[in-house]
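Please check this record.
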Amino acid sequence: MPDHRARLESLLRPGTKPVGGGDFLDLLGEIPQAGPPTGLAQRLMRTSAVPMIYERYWRPALGRVAKGLNGPTMADEVRIASEALGLRPGKVVLDVACGTGRFTRAFGEAVGPEGLSIGLDGSAGMLEKALSALNPPSVAYLRADAVDLPFGDSTVDAVCCFAALHMFADPDAALDSFARVLKPGGSLVMLTSARHGDQPLRLVDTVLGRLSGQRMFDRGEIAAKLARRGFDHVDERYSGVTQIVTGGLPVNIRK
């Protein structure tokens, strides 16, 4: 059976060393979180209580409000992400801002024992909760900065980032990281915010975003950002004030 923790370490940038022990690799050590919170939503996410209710109550409830009654369920999100990434046995997939690991576990099943599913989050509480679940042997967890990813260039086959990009202080830097660590031919899928195009809904979206500390992206904005980073076959699917964005790097892309 492959040593998935050792394999994870081998993908890190040269000179990157874990600074904490435990069941997940820790690159942040005594730093409580990777960077200051961007607003109320992230402050709540960083409390000790939210990881306990995140997967069953917190994320589904907030997601339903944001996506609307006709938006995808959490189970639908996992299925959509897995299909968009084209996961197969032996692949390496990175789940950025993995929370309590629901997507990470599903990806681990898809890539099988010869693959590797990496769950990355800045919260020790989230990762501890993720480890308390039944994880496939192909899963490994990493506490690190989700914006400045600690991996070498062209090291993973797929990147997933659901319900997080809009809470990053520097989403453009995060997109740069996603493109950098993806191998040519690799796939990306994200769920993030999408402001309505018409007033007065657009104004309401903007105000609520500012109050919660979440960035509200314009429709088409993320697709344009990905195109500038060399992604092709970019697609956006909207539900309420959310969007699921998919794209891939060409096999012959120059990095």
Q: What stands out?
A: The beta strands are 25-26, 92-96, 116-121, 139-143, 156-162, 182-193, 232-239, 242-248. The chain has one domain: 4-248. The mean pLDDT is 85.
